[in-house]
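Convert to structure. Protein one:
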Amino acid sequence: MTSSSTPGLARFNTLADGEATTALHEVCASAAWGREILSRRPYATAEALLRASDAATAALTTEELADAMAGHPPIGRPKPGDPTSSREQRGMAGATEELKTEMLELNLAYQERFGHVFLICATGATGEQMRDAVKSRTGNSPEQERGIVRTELGKINRIRLTRLVTEGE
């Protein structure tokens, strides 16, 4: 994304608060994150919006991070009728039934260990890469995993915000 202002960014800057809140909730399920992004409008550039997102993601409490993760379906099971999760998890769409079954088992083991969904920025990742990531991350400490989850959430938020302010251009 360029650092200049775009028509999509101008549109986002001028949305009514309620509409902007709804749009931001589609980016990240954390209400605290959304309030922080909303409070800093208007943004001069798309890069300023992304920097604000990074700061808001870094500032999430453990509970707010849990809220954000609750908005993400398990890998291999995108929300029915949700084009965003289907698009982001495209790498699992062509996976074999064996890989899909393995991912389901790995997701359940991860969730049992950490108490939340396995979160990864799946955009551009293959099913095998996602499988390998969940396998390796299941051995992390809860503290290590929270840091990784925060980083992955930041990547997802950046991709979704970029889409929000460039759609239709």
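Protein two, convert as well:
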Amino acid sequence: MEFDPADADLSLASLFAGWALADELQARLAADGFGDARFADGVVFQHLVGGPVTISVLAERLGVTQQAASKSVADLEKRGYLAREADPADARARNVVLTQRGQAVIAAARKHRAAVERQLRKALGADRVEAARVLLVEVIDHLGASPSLRTRMVRPPR
């Protein structure tokens, strides 16, 4: 049975729009040589843009076990986005850091998100796109999700 996107309620329309935007971003990142980057990698990256953290801190911020955080870090290390380095303040501890490749994929994602937004503004009208952006930010505020965004503690829905 077909589903007409015009029949979507606000929740589904915003979700599907987000997925379409994410798919476009993933395609652009792949064209830049980041074909192995995944949408979910950003959940980890958000905790490292401010600087290195230990696995235990990362696990706490992600709301997962240290084992789960270590598994995510190991996967991102294999793909060249993260590295572990000795903590200068504690020789026993190891910090997780973004590599040059990790920093590059974040920069590329930011560049592409801005480009997609410019294209949407041109195609759909700057006022309409801005009104949609403002409305979605107001929905985020109204539903109480702003604090997690401000503190870079975004988690996928449960």
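The first helix runs from residue 10 to 31. The chain has a mean pLDDT of 93.
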